[in-house]
C-alpha cells in the first residue's frame, strides 16, 4: 500500500514567504528603474545639451530594468501557484529554481554597473573642464 505523505503547514508559509520576497525585490527593481527614468528625464530637459545622449542611454537601461521587474512579478506569481499545487498534491520537488535568480542578478549587476561607470566617466569629464 502506498504511504501517504503529510505536508506540514510551514511549507505553505515558506511558499508564501518566498512569493513575498520575490514581490519585494521586483518592487525594489521597479523603484530603481522609475528613479532612473525620472532623473534621466530631468537631465534631458534641464541640464543642457551635453546630457542628452547619456540620459537617453540611462532611460533605455531603466526601461529594461522595468521589464525585468515585471518579469520578476510574473515569475513570483507563477512559482507561487506551481509550488502551492505541488504542496497540495504532496509531490516531491524540485521546489527551487537556480537559473533564473542568477540570471536576474547578473543582469542587474550589468545594468547598474553601466550606469555607475557612466556616472564616473561623466564626473571625470566634468572635472577636467
Q: How would you explain this protein's 3D organization?
A:
Residues 12-83 form the DUF202 domain. One of its GO terms (cellular component) is endomembrane system. Its main location: membrane. It comes from Symbiochloris irregularis. Keywords: Membrane, Transmembrane, Transmembrane helix. The chain is mostly helical and 129 residues long. The chain has one domain (15-128). Helix content is 81%, strand content 0%. The chain is built from three helices and no strands. The chain has helices at residues 9-46, 52-88, 99-128. Helix 1 (9-46) packs antiparallel against helix 2 (52-88). The longest helix has 38 residues, at 9-46. The chain starts with 8 loop residues before the first helix and ends with a helix. The mean pLDDT is 85.
Please give a handful of descriptors for the protein shown.
mainly alpha; 129 residues; 81% helix; single chain
Global geometry: elongated
Tell me the fraction of residues in β-strands, as a range: under 5%
Largest β-sheet summary: none
SSE pattern = HHH
Treating each run of at least 4 consecutive H or I residues as one helix, how many helices? 3
Structural class: mainly alpha
The parts where pLDDT drops under 50 for at least 5 residues are none
Task: Find the count of extended strands (DSSP E, 2+ residues).
Answer: 0
Subcellular location: Endomembrane system
Transmembrane segments: 21-44, 56-78, 99-124
Membrane topology: Multi-pass membrane protein
Main location: membrane
Amino acid at each position: 500500500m502506498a504511504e501517504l505523505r503529510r505536508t506540514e503547514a510551514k511549507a505553505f508559509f515558506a511558499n508564501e514567504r518566498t512569493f513575498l520576497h520575490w514581490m519585494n525585490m521586483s518592487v525594489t527593481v521597479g523603484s530603481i528603474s522609475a528613479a532612473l527614468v525620472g532623473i534621466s528625464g530631468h537631465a534631458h530637459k534641464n541640464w543642457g545639451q551635453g546630457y542628452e545622449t547619456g540620459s537617453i542611454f540611462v532611460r533605455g537601461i531603466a526601461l529594461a530594468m522595468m521589464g525585468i521587474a515585471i518579469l520578476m512579478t510574473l515569475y513570483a506569481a507563477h512559482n507561487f501557484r506551481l509550488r502551492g499545487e505541488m504542496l497540495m498534491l504532496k509531490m516531491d520537488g524540485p521546489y527551487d529554481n537556480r537559473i533564473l535568480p542568477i540570471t536576474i542578478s547578473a543582469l542587474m549587476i550589468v545594468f547598474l554597473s553601466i550606469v555607475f561607470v557612466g556616472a564616473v566617466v561623466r564626473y571625470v569629464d566634468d572635472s577636467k573642464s
